[in-house]
Amino acid sequence: MSDLAEHLAFFRELGVTGVSRDPAWRHRAATAAIAVSTSPSEAGVAPAESGAAHDPAHALQALQDEIGPACVRCKLCTRGRSTVVFGSGSPKARLMFVGEAPGEDEDRQGLPFVGRAGQLLTRIIEAIGMTREQVYIANVIKCRPPDNRNPEPDEVAACSPFLFRQVQTVNPLVIVALGKFAAQCLLQTTDPITRLRGREFDFQGRTLIPTFHPAYLLRNPAAKREVWDDMKKVRALLQADARR
Fold first, then answer.
1. Is this structure's pTM higher than 0.90?
2. Which of 8, 142, 177, 207 is 20 to 30 Å from 96 by CA-CA measure?
3. Is residue 36's pLDDT more than 90?
4. Is the CATH number 6.10.140.1580 carried by domain 55-242?
């Protein structure tokens, strides 16, 4: 009954007022957790900096300064971008969320996930007993594509090294990849998100859990059930680490 209560509480938090009694809606195949390894050279990530001298907040600020407020590393600088959206949250977060790209609201405010999808992400974070201030949130690319189109390969190639450095600097215990582009970029795969979600991957000694993007959930509310399953795994991993 505790799982059922958790499901219902989560749905209420996300604004869902009912569920389907259709057995097909409830059924989903069990999927085993599969670990894959991504080497630092494949991901373009240097070994983690260690020692007392390592200050994640200072390192993130230095990285943001390196990118600069008027980055010209890809064509998005000429396509109507207003702001370079770097990332936000705790520099020492144990949980990190990675999306694909800023949208209109993010471009205007200079912060990731502040529009409707961002509001839903906030409720998802709160549903596992955390706040946005306790996690770190970033995107694969830092500038808004025109008309919110999908990121293009050259844009991902130009910007993803900065994401890898953000991951290395924050050094979270768990990474949640939100949607296809984030999962494919981090895992260096072309597998669709429907094949990736529900599984756990090893990413440089961290657990990476792909799940659906909040924008997808706004269009497909029934998928919130799968996301809640993923977030329960996240919560369990964080709780287990806290007990050590």
1. no
2. 8
3. no
4. no
